Amino acid sequence: xxxxxxxxxxxxxxxxxxxxxxxxxxxxxxxxxxxxxxxxxxxxxxxxxxxxxxxxxxxxxxxxxxxxxxxxxxxxxxxxxxxxxxxxxxxxxxxxxxxxxxxxxxxxxxxxxxxxxxxxxxxxxxxxxxxxxxxxxxxxxxxxxxxxxxxxxxxxxxxxxxxxxxxxxxxxxxxxxxxxxxxxxxxxxxxxxxxxxxxxxxxxxxxxxxxxxxxxxxxxxxxxxxxxxxxxxxxxxxxxxxxxxxxxxxxxxxxxxxxxxxxxxxxxxxxxxxxxxxxxxxxxxxxxxxxxxxxxxxxxxxxxxxxxxxxxxxxxxx
Length: 318
Prior knowledge:
By secondary structure, this protein is α+β, with helices and mostly antiparallel strands.
């Protein structure tokens, strides 16, 4: 969630009326989004929508098209897909930000509400259908290359905190207190990641690539009020081995794979690939949030959010 940046809500109402033909009667901030701002909006005909506002938008147009294709062409209903404007657009540029509109799904994320085994099975079924979607919607154009794109940022973070002085800002010191004692473990993890990277680059031609959500983390999984399971935030889909998505369910493998097997016969987990993605997630979270705290100029309120996200984002168990 972004803690700052003001938005002209009257402008949003005008744009939504003009571009989507929806007349708003209420606009409520949803304060749980990390890289965007979200609003629940209610229309004059009593229908609810989710309006997502992107500030630092690096999301490809193909990501929006992919979610729409999964819904419209592959018939996968339990995903958050963009609502088209009257001119067929999936997102709109307004001043220095972009907006996209989705149907509102009332419920709680898996971060807020523990999923039942049956819900985990349904989630496995949903993932398998997405992974088997290539014959219908084609292969997603962004393909896994097993590169460690954040390596330089990660090394720079540990170099910076090792040279920190008493003049450093409060949140830089907090980051140093959190990461500093684990420097050796993280550097060892980077070495492990690089060994796995070399191994997988050799094996790449023999790995099966499927269409993946990319980050089905607990915050991107919604349990609706009627118990249905939905996948949200199709910001980073990718063509990759299935373990890219299955990584997030290593503590719930049995029910997820039970559901997965309903739609896919490929149920064997490749441990090298799973470990690669596990280490990528751990170290990528440090590089992402750490660089924001160390090298950007955010408010204390926003830095606290980045720090909290970082503390909840890594796992030594891979």
